[in-house]
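Appendix B. Chain record.
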Amino acid sequence: MNLNVLKVVPSYLILLLFLFHSNLFAGETIEVLGSPEDLNLKLTALLNKLDPDYYSDDKTRGFVYRYRNQWTNPYDFNIYIGKVSKTSPDSILRIESPRIGQEKMWKQIFEQEILRKAPHVAAVPITEKYHFVTQGLNLISPIASVGYNSWNSPLYSGRDTILSMAIYFLTDLILVGGTYYYAEQNLPKKNIWDNLANVKGAGNVWESPNAVGIFAALAVSRGIRAFDAWEDTAAHNKTAQFSWSFRF
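Structure tokens predicted for this chain:
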């Protein structure tokens, strides 16, 4: 692998990471009839039904209430409750998440559960996914695991899927490609006596003392994805327990 490639690829990885998290500054919003206090009771009841591992954040950013997930919660969210305006008695509910898919999923849940709005005509229910499948695919490739979890799941949008796959691909390319190149360049060299005695030199990169680094590099992305895959599957299956339908 050319060293110039290894120098250029990290800049694309940084750009993808930025794009992946950039929608933290965006979000989905709905208006709800009633006071923030009434809406707060409905929201906390819904969150407790899905997963009680969340907490109230005092840094409300101008809203009345703010809730965030604990790290043990498979969902990833910032949810705000505020007033539509100073003169309006109605409330506003805002959801932010690192993924566009989760933002849209929460909005559809709020519409069906809090607004009692019928699902879109194109909305469909979701079915269970399996931890052993996504973790098994992850051992082959994190990209395959992302593909399995994103298929027919409201947790992922198309952009989320592409960016997740691209980030894991580039992570493997940088780490595995870099360690492979290093191991290849550091194969044992024959000295003059070995040449005179016609001793066989190292045949391939796997005979390098640094070859173990390639397996260590492979383990990095798969270790990260193992946790992400658990979160994706757990969140998907919790959502699938209820009668909500989603438009993808």
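Further analysis of this model is presented in Appendix C.
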